[in-house]
Amino acid sequence: MTWRSPLALVRDALQGQRAREKELRSLVSNLPYEGQEKGKQPNRFFSSNSIKTTKYSPLFFIPMNLYEQFHRLANVYFVGLAILNFIPVVNAFQPEVALIPICVILSLTALKDAWEDFRRYQSDRKVNNTPCFVYSRMEKQFVERRWKDARVGDFVKVVCNEIVPADLLLLHSSDPNGVCYIETANLDGETNLKQRTVANGLCTSDCGFEPENFNCKVVCEKPNNNLNHFKCYLEKPNEEKVGAGIESLLLRGCTVRNTNHAVGFVVYAGHETKSMLNNNGSRYKRSKLERKLNIDVFFCVILLFTMCLIGALGHFLWLESLPGVPPYLVPDSSGHLDSPGLTSFYMFFTMIILLQILIPIALYVSIELVKIGQIFFITNDLDLYDEETDSRMQCRALNITEDLGQIEYIFSDKTGTLTENKMVFRRCSVMGTEFPHKENAESSSRRGGGRKIHPYLDFFLALTICNTVMVSMATAKRERVKTFSNLIKKASLFCQRKPKRNRTRSEDPAVGSAKMESAADTNGVQTCSLHPLSQRDRPAAASQSLHYEAQSPDEAALVHAARAYGFILLARTPDTVSVRLPSGQVLDFEVLDTLTFDCTRKRMSVLVRHPVTRECVLYTKGADYAIMELLGTPYAGNDVAAVTQHHLDCYAKEGLRTLCVAKKVVSEDVYRSWLVDRKRAQASMDNREQLIMETSVQLETDLTLLGATGIEDRLQESVPETTVALREAGIHVWVLTGDKPETAVNIGYACRLLEEEDLVINMSQEACFKLCLTCTSILDCTLEEVRRYEEDPCNVDTTQNIALVIDGNTVSMALSPDLQDRFVDLAKRCRTVLCCRVTPLQKSEVVKLIREKLKVMTLAVGDGANDVNMIQAADVGIGISGQEGMQAVMASDFAISRFKHLRKLLLVHGHWCYTRLANMIIYFFYKNVAYVNLLFWYQFFCGFTGTAMIDYWLMIFFNLFFTSVPPIMFGIFDKDVSAEVLMGVPELYRMGQGKGEYNFLSFWISILDAFYQSLVCFFIPYLAYQDSDVDMFTFGTPMNTVALFTILLHLSIEIKSWTLVHWITMLGSVGLYFIVTLAYNATCITCNPPSNPYWILQSQMADPMFYLICTISTVAALLPRYMFHVLKNSISPSPLLQGRLLDRRDPDTKALRIQEWRGFRGGGEQVKRYRLSPPPSPTLDTPVDYVPEFDLTGDDFSLNVITHQSTVHT
Fold first, then answer.
1. Which residues are annotated as a binding site for ATP?
2. Could you say which residues bind Mg(2+) here (predicted)?
């Protein structure tokens, strides 16, 4: 290694920084520079592929860890006091003794951090030493290297089922069509295959790829964490630019599937890869309880300073009252004695050291231990385990478990959260004719044979072609492929493989042509029924098993439906789509371009060349409003769009998900002109996404409507019961969805969010424009009507059940600063709010608005990537591991597999976690205040000199060992009410909402109780030993014993359910106290000179006075609290106490009493009760109008209640 001057090193460092900060990077191949020194490497300024996620190094672990721990102010406080105790003029006891508590806490935390960092080191070493294949120019082949050896500019080969070591620009694939399939489960949890393609014009499938012949310059954007976007172009020697995007990028951490091998060019390595930039570690959230705890710690600091000021002032007055200089006040070596004022100033700090345990040092560690125990029981609850997916509850945020017991608002997605996200094709409308799809229907003869067939051909072709569904057969097995023959031998085993839950797969070997049957619906609209052919009518050639892998369950349902009617998707490549028609003919469509779906356009399109007519045909599918506004001349008559829109509205009222399908024939001239703009946009590095979207919009005009589809997404199991229970628990449930209002309302009725007698207020931009009213007028009018109802004397004993339905455009206006307060005022009066047609960003904005304006605890639950913003904006985010991958789970604080699990998670575990932790924290404050006040009261009798009547070692052991374990077990195991009662009576959950059990009043009541108990524990022994000749420790030992009994028995009063663990810890603490104290008094003669604790407790236990003092003091100290509980529970029992009383009943009586309680409590809350029978489902024949009528009178208008009365048939 050659020596380089420091100036050259600084110059290289500055050049490297400038190169890394450039918006565009120019990369070239490393092969011509192989073997040369690093200074001559063209890509030397960019990150290596070695990663390091550890926080510490062995050499600097101790200082860095201490620096981390000192971010917690409590640690700084106790270390400062320990250092202060080394100053002779202010020390309260032996300096070494003062270091023990904080050293124990810091050491335990350091050991935990060291273990975690060592595990990260092992993981890094394993990843960095993973083998990979890198091309070597010297050896003329790919050679095995380690991941850490790969560099930007290298050529890396990845074989099937191997993980991609760096971000690679795909240059070659073993697939003849230049396709590489990857699985991104390690990045976003999605197990469905994604397709990556070689950039156009780089290489052909006829010849192999030779890295040495690659002479293009790769220009790419600066590294970022966006997994869905990548800007790049390749500049050939002739200066021709070829655009490449995310569709050509293999991300680090992805797994290559169904592809023998692929070769890529390293564009990002190591910590600059997109996966590493997204690896931010676990997010830290502060719970509401923790924020309240910090405030109370501040109050304790104020209380401590007040007591120290009293001590300092008392010492000053005591010194001033002395007639002379007492002999125990020893002057310094020069004979100088400090003045009373200066001595009192020193005494202030001495008192801080003496009373420091008023601030609970062990509380923070105890809280972490309790939360670990709570999480263990939550994750191992069998009721939260889903057998179908073999998944259990996941706790990804370890510090907010108690927030689950304080939720007031729930914001839920609809698809995949309330519903299964397993799509079933139910109905379709083709050219104005409505077809109900009948599953497993018998074949029937076709009627109306004179009907034209080509519109239906185009419709089903669009369903088959316009998607991203991939077809797999023998290669469905995801196993390392070594040889093609080996794969063929095992192909028969792969076809029967059960699909994973997270992958949307559809397989149906029996396919055939569709038969149509004419009919007429009750609305007088001509309809036809489509029936799949029976098994005997299907062609034998179609019996081969095909596997469809889709990124969306909707696409899988559409392709499966088209397949059932004979339009079979046989194969898909980047350039072609093969479809078998009902006649058996196979058409190979050339794919000219794919206009992918985006949230702005709300549609996707595929441009193909028809193999028969050679026309360029654009097939488009998307949201109904996004397609309808782009229509040109209808395909057959001017009324097709209107009739189709009517069908769409009826589908939505049935709760079906709707899509519109359209087509357009593009002329060759238009296509060539558009293609130039398209290539220019794809090669652009600035505003590429915007330019690509503009070219898509440019082509998607003057569409011809083909039809519409209605897809059913069934409700998950027990969703209605869960939503009813959450409402009874005092939780407001909102649904934020991108579906149509009609669909959302239907689902709202189905899952009991809406009831038949609810006042449903509809606010949509369309309604506003129709009535020429602004959103402000709508909000003002609605609020006025609600207030008018509340002020009506006739409604004094009723609770108005209001539901609000609002669309995305109106939400955007309502979120504006001048309308936020009106919207929040209306929303808080609503029991249910349905926000429809909202974007992911709007979801998060709504959650933030309610959380910040109403100061309430919020929870967001979703299952897809579009719910991530909402999940992260809420106080508690819950992801559902459903059909749309694991992105929501990975961004969440907790993960469940079913919406119904939310009921037990909140009502049972949330309630337990909050009540346990709240009561434990209050108990900790009480325990420390009660014990430290014994020392404080003693100062009044020792001249406020900072003397302690209890041995220092026993004082330290008292908090560290004798009384530390019982409250931790109390926080982990205590159950104030059983799970059965909490599930049966959701109203009990309300006890934790708002201020909850841990509030300002409960905190100060405990502090005052601690002061009273400390007075009793001090003055009863004081009066018993008054005028006696007992020494200081003989006086303090009974007091210490009384404090132990009182503090532990106080906890016994608070424990609601005794278990074996409680008994062991309680009796063990008492036994440990006597064993340690007896051993200490027997062996420690000069441990704390000049004090002598020898044989103190042994002598006390031989004196009957000791037992009398312990008994009387303990009873007198606890009697007020015990009497308070007795009177309170007898005169005004709380709902929680009533719940505990139910636990003592036999199962039959308990179930009956729970049912009676729910009925009584519900009747007390509102006069109008909901009927428990589900509301009638609206159909095409009986559409439901849920929109309230606006009667316009001048500038005012009123809302009329529209209730849905079901007809009773006898």
1. 413-415, 555, 597, 621, 657, 737-739, 837, 843, 866-867
2. 413, 415, 863, 867
